[in-house]
Amino acid sequence: MANLFLHYGFDKWLEQTDTTVTFTRYADDVIVHCRSKIHAEQTLKAIGQRMNAVGLELHPKKTKIVYCRDYRRKEKYAEVKFDFLGYSFQPRTTKAKTRSRLFLGFDCAISISSRKRIADKLGDLKLEKMSFKSIVGIAQHLNSMIRGWINYYGKFRISTLHKVFRLLHKRIVRWARKRYKRYKTSLKRGFLWLKRVQEQYPTFFYHWQFGFLD
Length: 214
Known about the structure:
single chain; alpha+beta; three-stranded antiparallel β-sheet; two-stranded antiparallel ribbon; 5 strands
């Protein structure tokens, strides 16, 4: 019902009101692309008035004008970053596809808040307390979840998931130190054990297939 309401309350209205803008909407999250700051300010004002007219209001903290700074757009503005659907869009150093040179682009990678949600999920799982007899059970239990993270957040700049999987590896080592007496007193031996497992079974965990090895 919300999508149907916003289809007519926002999408169709904006298409008829201003043909010079493009926009992307998912549920009640919307990105509207404008060509200048003045145009963005005018559009934001018009959208605010439209929302009031249909009984809605813009979120006071999430609604903002962002300057998409890159190697072409070099002006200085305070806001150059926004989050959308779990991704963070911002200026990033990018490698050219045709030549091996770097330039400043404006693109996306998993957001800090999304990484935190995954970290919280790993904490809630209490991996170190799981009663699996071997790491095989851990892999079978987690792989569907890991596959989901990579399939979604790995679409763009998959390397930014490295921090997520480092945390997962720490949790696995913590489980091993509780499970096996020989690793209980040595964190270093615990990580060496995990490294040996990775070398022997590089496809054991789904993310290992993408080079996330310690």
